[in-house]
Amino acid sequence: MTRASRLFGHLGWIALALLGAGSLAVLALHRGESVNAVWLIASTIATLAISYRFYSRFLADRVLQLDATRATPALRRNDGLDYVPTDRWVAFGHHFAAIAGAGPLVGPVLAAQMGYLPGTLWILIGVVLAGAVQDMLVLFFSVRRDGRSLGEMIRSEMGNAAGVIAMIGILMIVIILLAVLALVVVKALAQSPWGTFTVAMTIPIAVLMGLTLRYLRPGRILEVSALGLVLLFAAIWAGGVVAADPHWAALFTLDAKTLAWLLIAYGFIAAVLPVWLLLAPRDYLSTFLKIGTVLLLAVAVFIALPDLHMPALTRFVDGSGPVFSGSLFPFLFITIACGSVSGFHALVASGTTPKLLADEQQVRLIGYGGMLMEGFVAITALVAACALDPGLYFAMNSPAALIGTDAVHAASTISSWGFLITPEQITGAAQQIGETSLLSRTGGAPTLAVGMAQILHGLIPGQGMLAFWYHYAILFEALFILTTVDAGTRVARFLIQDLAGMAYAPLQRTDSWAANLFATGIAVTGWGYFLIQGVSDPLGGINSLWPLFGIANQMLAAIALTFCCAVLVKMKRERYLWVALLPTLWLLVCTLTAGWQKLFHTDPHIGFLAAAKKFGDAAARGEILAPAKNIADMQRIVGNNQVDAVLCVLFIAVMLAVVVLGLHTILRARREQQACACETPYVGVAGLEH
Amino acid sequence: MTALVSRVSGLCRKIAQTARLACGVPDYDNYLRHMREQHPQTPPMTHEQFFANRLQARYRPGSSRCC
Q: Looking at CA atoms only, how far is residue A676 from chain B in angstroms?
């Protein structure tokens, strides 16, 4: 490169840095009616581009010392099936499709209750310094170990005990994740005949696709998926017809409890059916719909550049928020997990992706770059939520216990919080999207759907299109979550069989129907319990369960990052330990504080034990507190809160145990003279060519 | 002109490959080439067998995706 062009390049990066800093300043200092999303998008693009160009390069060249001459597992073990050297952009697309999902969309929507600024800053800082680092490091370590999974790597680098503890941790996370995601679907579909009908139709559509793929057009995934997508759009249209017909609408108008039980029964049946019949075809549909929706949202936000009506900071940073309880620190940092840093990605980055890389250096693009893209998606979700009228946002996201069940009462309560809205606005918004009510549609999905529908409707206006886009977005979320419920129940089943097999060997056999039904039953009972609890929770479920899920997810990230710290020390790269240590410590501080507060906070909205005591004491006095209708309900709420508290203690215990074992590994490795990480031996790329 | 056409068709092929891979099915032609070059004695799986094999692999124990 000539000197002039290098200088020009430097000037370009400096200009981008100034643009980013300027945009952030506008966002942070702006006080007034509304601010345009262009500032948010500009600062995001600048931050992500600069961090990719400089920080990921530092990680690649100095910390990990990526070696293009070293043969990757895909080259060494190429079998055309699992290990396949793949074009880097194809591998990037695959990896992004595996990490993107409902998480990065829902978390930022919930976090919007504190204003747009805290969420934006945590997504940008978190993704650059924590999330993308974790994904890149775990991907690299797995590539250096034949593409082995996080659990296996923890076992070989940190010992058997750490491996088993991590496995128990993963199982608990999967259970609580499934419960919370199922709750999101229940909240979105309750009392919504249009949504319920459309989502129900995905089952016959998927089965039809499965049968076609098996018997008529074997292996023609794209063709059959295209057919499925056409049928899905027809189902959205038909949902509108169903909702307009009094007889059919009544049939598909279900309350939350009924939906929860239907979902539990469905989860069990779907998880024991052969994969080709239901899971696989629905998985294809939801993958394509997911990528399509994420791109659609990003492009739409980019073109529409709506004004953000939510203030930079709201009064709810103090912890009294209706969406989730708890103050900005630590609860914001566990509410937005996917999008900033997500432990689940460590499982993906040590799954299929490491077996696809043709060159070790692609770890930078796919690991770090893939996560940056997820951060961008999270920002667009935040924009969609903050572009809504704040009054409507709180009407949709506050539990009925706080705002009541009629528009007049809700509007006056929310207006008293300082977010002015009239009852007519609330009912008008519901009518426009073809629903009877939007009150207390908690869980994030409906809010995102309304935000997305408004943005898309602004770009492509048309009679009735707002309702169509709303139900499209609901369908996308629900379809995706149903796939996760099904696939996740299977994951939990295999984990349970693995763990139970340690006590009684025959339970480990994955081909045994008895073992299958037993383990699936336990898995479904596990998440089903928390789902039912969420449906009958005084604060509507999401309010208390989402933080528990956030703690679990960030705990997994802390475990993965602890593993990264241990391996860096074992590789004798202590000089660069801080790249993994800083995010590890931050996550430990956040999750442990959040865990502690969920246990012992004196506010019954936050602390599980305080809530148990409040309802227990009232029951002892013979009082009935809403939403309990009798003493038995009261006892159940006490019991639920105690179970949540126990789960919280278990999460903390798992995390601390892994940290102690990690420290032990680190101290032992420091005494070694030479690098002692269990990498597969070096094989040169040149040596493979024959 | 032909260069443009071949670039566009190459891009379409890559998009289709990405879409299939996102569903857990790697490139079948690549698999055939691999078998021809490295294991000429072993008959490769048919497209149907290949698809069925990948379907089982996607949902076997240990595979995971994000929320």
A: 26
Average pLDDT of chain A to the nearest whole number: 92
Cα B43 from Cα B29, distance rounded (Å): 14
Distance from CA of B36 to the nearest CA of A (A): 11
Question: Is A78 in the B-facing interface, judged by CB distances under 8 Å?
Answer: yes
pLDDT of residue B67 exceeding 70, the answer is no
Chain B touched by A552 (CB under 8 Å): no
Residue that the structure tokens 């009958």 belong to: A536
> CB neighbours of A629 closer than 8 A, spacing ≥ 6?
none
- Give A491's contacts in chain B (Cβ within 8 Å): 61, 63-64
Nearest to A295 by CA among A379, A385, A377, A382: A377
Band (B62; pLDDT cuts 50, 70, 90): low
Residue A103: pLDDT over 90: no
The tokens for A672 are 């070694």
Say whether A677 sits in a helix, a strand or coil. coil
Other beta carbons within 10 angstroms of residue A89's beta carbon come to 16
Q: Which tens digit of pLDDT belongs to each residue from B33-56?
A: 999 999 999 999 999 999 999 998
**What percentage of residues in chain A have a pLDDT greater than 90?**
71
A110-162, pLDDT tens digit by residue? Answer: 999 999 999 999 999 999 999 999 999 999 999 999 999 998 899 999 999 99
Of A81, A287, A288, the CB nearest to B26: A81
Task: Find all residues with CB under 8 Å of A216, minimum gap 6, and list them.
Answer: none
Domain spans, chain A: 13-191+254-671
Contact call for B18 and A352, based on CB within 8 A? no
Long-range contacts formed by A575-579: CB under 8 A, 24+ apart: A576/A62, A576/A63, A579/A59, A579/A63, A579/A133, A579/A137
Record the pTM: 0.94
Kindly tell me if the per-residue pLDDT of A2 is higher than 80.
Answer: no
Q: How close A435 gets to chain B, by Cα (Å)? A: 27
| CB distance A560 to A346 below 8 Å | yes
Mean pLDDT, rounded, for B3-30:
93
Indicate the CATH number for domain A13-191+254-671: 1.20.1740.10
Give pLDDT, residue A167: 86
Contact A94 B18 (CB under 8 A): yes
State how far the alpha carbon of A568 is from the alpha carbons of A316, A681, B34, in Å. 40, 17, 36
Query: Do the chains contact at A81 and B57, CB–CB below 8 Å?
Result: yes
Radius of gyration of chain A measured on its C-alpha atoms: 25
Using alpha carbons only, give the angle A552, A321, A479 rounded to the nearest 5 degrees: 55
- Nearest by CB to residue A93, choosing from B22, B51, B62, is B22
Interchain proximity B17–A342, CB inside 8 Å: no
- Predicted pLDDT at B61: 67
